[in-house]
Amino acid sequence: MWSQLAASLTDGLLLGFVYGVAAMGLTLIWGVMSVINLAHGPVIALGMFGTYLLFTHLGVNPYLAMVPVAGAGLLVGLVIYVIAVHRVINAPHLSSLLATFAVNMIIIGIGTAVFSTSPQNIDYSLGSVEVGILTFPASRLVGAFAAILVTACLYLFLYFTRPGKAIRAVANNRMAAELMGIPSSWVLALSFGLGTMMAAVAGGLIATFFPFTILSGGPYELKSFVICVLGGLGNPLGALVGGLLLGGLEGLVPTFMPVSWVPVVEFGLFVLVLLVRPSGLFGAK
Amino acid sequence: MKRFGAGLAIVLSLSLILASLSLPANAADKTVTIGYTASKTGKLNVEATRQINGLHLWMEQVNKAGGVKLADGTVVKFADKFYDDESKKERVQELYTKLISADKADFLISPYSSGLADASAVIAQQYNKIMITTGAASDSTYKKGFTLIYQTYTPASRYLTGAVDLLGKLAPQAKNLAIIHEKDKFSTDVVTALKKYAENKGYQVPLFEGYDTATTDFAPFINKIPQPVGAIMGGGHFADTTTFAKQLYEKKVNASMTALLVAPPEPKFAELGEACISVIGSSQWEPQATYSADSAKKAGMEYFGISVADFIKSYQAKFNEIPSYHSAGGYVSGLILQKAIQEAGSTDTAKVKAVLDKMNLMTFYGVIKFDDSPKAHGLQVGHDMVYIQWQKGKDGKPVKQVVWPEAASTASAMVRPAR
């Protein structure tokens, strides 16, 4: 029982770091421009395919492939922002919701036509790590380290660079930031790009754990919503903590009940947090 | 005179038209359309592709050999019409209705997998079309009162039970087994029968849990496997079972035996490398099969169609890979139809059905005999499974060996090495 609990919790927490990165992208976009990005899942899937294509066709190490995948994720985000989001940024939330949903359908449609829905797999193994009674794939450990690294980079960018400070200023008060000479349109586009970049990197990391299809981003998008609510919408560091909480929960629940109950508990918690503390466990009161 | 000439011309023309109508149709023009859906995309893509390859090979060979000659001298040739069902049940019924109504399919072959085949069987029965199911082992389809659906595969209820017998011989000290399975129709049918069989044999089943079809993370299930455990059994289809086997290896779970569904007999399973070693799988057919005209004679039954060696040779020549049981299943589904049409001397549904009901013959794939009772009409009762295991060859690479039943084995089964 205890060994199962320890193994299950370890697996869940290691996965939780990567969930956190995926959720960080979603929460960043919400925090800066109050847009719920429904194209988040397909961008996660594009990150998976980007890593896969670089590995299988160019022989790039999947972890090194994260760098070009991140760059491509940023670019994709900028394009989505310019084409679909910019014009509806000041419209009611439903407009941006529908605009990003349309982008979601377009990416899935093109992805299905190009890649089909057959599962793909990155055949790259780092072996297993044994620590006492625990045995887990080394890829999950590397994934967790990569997630911490990405979070640290995002933190440093937001707090110690001029564009990062501009993003925080626009998130805080867009009008005041514009009065201070910050070009808010550029900052919003950059924020959207950073959000999709995080999604693409998370997708790339997940692709080193599990097989995937163009539809695989969907479940991670849903998890990202739960994490954002747990960690507080608009709070990137809260997203990482939320990811760990969700991962831990996914490890904990199967120890005591069938695995099929995990989503019931997860989304039950989602509703509960929305009711009791709508700003999230780590959000402002 | 002019009028007479014109009248004669009209009479002659009419006579010619009438004569041409009364002549028998050109033999080469009699084409039977076989309709089916194929999972060209989606999670069933690997198995379905092999199945369709097998069917295409049969069609090419039978047409090249001149088709099937009926009693009235008509020569029947075969053509196919198919659509991609995307491995989705909801697409199947719509597409089979289209195949029958719009494409005028004369006979049907099922899509791959029990779930999809079950959905298509309803349509076939509704439109009075004979359907040969292949890649579909679930028993329950044949217990719904259908009268035109015929199963090629050994039913799910007998799919993994042999692995329990093998466990008794391989690891007599084993007392329990963990069953982790896909929660679809086929896998659930298999493991329900497996659990009952194992418990009747005195084994305990401390873990019996299903996973959703789209599952990619098996760690929560693997962490639940109690230690010590005699065997780990279950799985589902190729994509999920391959991932499950890989993660079992990564988590270094110890058990005397791992026996999984569908994926292990596929040659592509060897791409797992070290993770596939010692994994056992039940197979409907293997290239080492010994079915032949001689063995049919000994069993007192007719042998029909291509030999095992010729099937392997022609399949390899066309597709540049060793055929799996999915390929053999696709080929034999066509072969069954061919034999039934040939025997019936007609393409009429009632006449072909009468032959299928009484069919009892051996092919390169094994014995084909259908239950003709109203209780389980069309259920396969003649065919038997073999069990394969991936072992290390002399060059260290994975080699597939038949390990059960002993009479058909090419090597002794090995205990799963301690990780």
Question: Layout of SSEs?
Answer:
The complex is a heterodimer of chains A (285) and B (419).
Chain A: H1 2-33, H2 40-58, H3 66-85, H4 93-115, E1 128-131, E2 134-137, H5 138-160, H6 162-172, H7 174-179, H8 184-207, H9 217-231, H10 236-256, H11 262-276
Antiparallel strand pairs in A: 1-2
Helix pairs in contact in A: 1-5, 1-8, 1-9, 1-10, 2-3, 2-4, 2-8, 2-9, 3-8, 5-6, 5-8, 6-8, 9-10, 9-11
Chain B: H1 2-22, E1 31-38, H2 45-64, E2 68-69, E3 75-84, H3 89-101, E4 107-109, H4 114-126, E5 131-133, E6 149-151, H5 161-170, E7 176-182, H6 185-200, E8 204-211, H7 219-222, E9 231-235, H8 238-250, E10 257-260, E11 279-283, H9 293-298, E12 302-303, H10 308-319, H11 325-344, H12 349-358, E13 360-363, E14 366-369, E15 386-392, E16 398-404
Parallel strand pairs in B: 1-3, 1-4, 4-5, 5-6, 7-8, 7-9, 9-10, 10-11, 12-13
Antiparallel strand pairs in B: 2-3, 11-15, 13-14, 15-16
